Amino acid sequence: MDSLKVIDLFSGAGGLSQGFRDAGFDVISAVEIDKNLSQTYRENFKKTKIFEEDITKVNSDDLLVNKSNVDVVVGGPPCQGFSMSGKRIRSNGIFLNDKRNKLFKEFVRVIKDLKPKIFLMENVPGILNIYQGKTKNQILSIFKSLGYNAKVKVLLAADFGVPQLRKRAFFIGNNLGIDPEFLFPPKINKEYVTVEEAIYDLPFTKSGQGEFKSKYDKKPITEYQKIMRRNAKLLFNHISTKHDDRVLKIMKMLKEGQGRNNLPKNLQTKSIHSGSYMRIVKNKPAYTITTRFDTPPVGRVTHPKADRALTAREAARLQSFPDDFIFLGKRTHIGIQIGNAVPPLLAYEIAKNLKKRLILKDKNKIPKHLSNYQPELRFS
Fold it and tell me: For residues 363 and 341, what is the distance between their CA atoms, to the nearest angstrom?
């Protein structure tokens, strides 16, 4: 049997692509207009044809390498018009006329042109609640008009082996007559992976230390560490931001789980970020990794033990990028590459489930995880 083929639109650094590749899919092509992101994609997906241009100028047929068919199209079109602050949405819920959502229309265009068996579109969880759910319903209606039975769910990355309490919304649909409920993966039935289990085999660098390429100084201990290091010989991107004396003074005063509100009044600078300066708790998953994981004033990004923010490699670990995934570019660009990505392990669990569904003869056979799944009590 030929490998299943996937196309990644708005690929960024390649979180979705990594997960699908790990699940055995052939990522035949990708589109990413921002060369600050696509350079990392090219480095890590050398067999994938990448279009580094505006998707409006990409012909759908050109995405089919060697005129092959495509099984799955994935992507996370930037949809500023979907945001909770998008009050321009009219009372009828129509948003396609909003110019900010032209990229969603391009995603729809590719689905309409290429007719993949399955599509996956990810976005922020807030998309489900915009205008009392009318935006969500219209999106589902648009895909239904193209012949796709679809559903949307918010998935928590920690439920799928990622050491991070990150939530993302996934629209998944198919034109094969499969109940879309079956296209979502089962939760992994085990305890959450903690920050300590995820990153404590990495060198404990101090503020301003680290090299683009270095060596490990410890052996992997946990199963997660072994998974992350499976193909890596050297350590990349483990460089700490050099913090000024004032920031270092603040960090030294904080224990695990403490942040701005635990500081003396004279050091409680104004901040719109509730987790400002907060030190990560090692025995729980991390909070959502953002694009500014190296900047303590903007969130919960201070290392549990070291007096510094997370390095790019530590943030990548918490996002579940394997250690042989190399990030290129300036610090701010690498922050965007990591912080905006779909965690590869989450993508892998989705892709693995889709693969089973695509090759299953009785495509509407009820999976065991839906017939006997019992939810567990987890961290709040």
Answer: 30
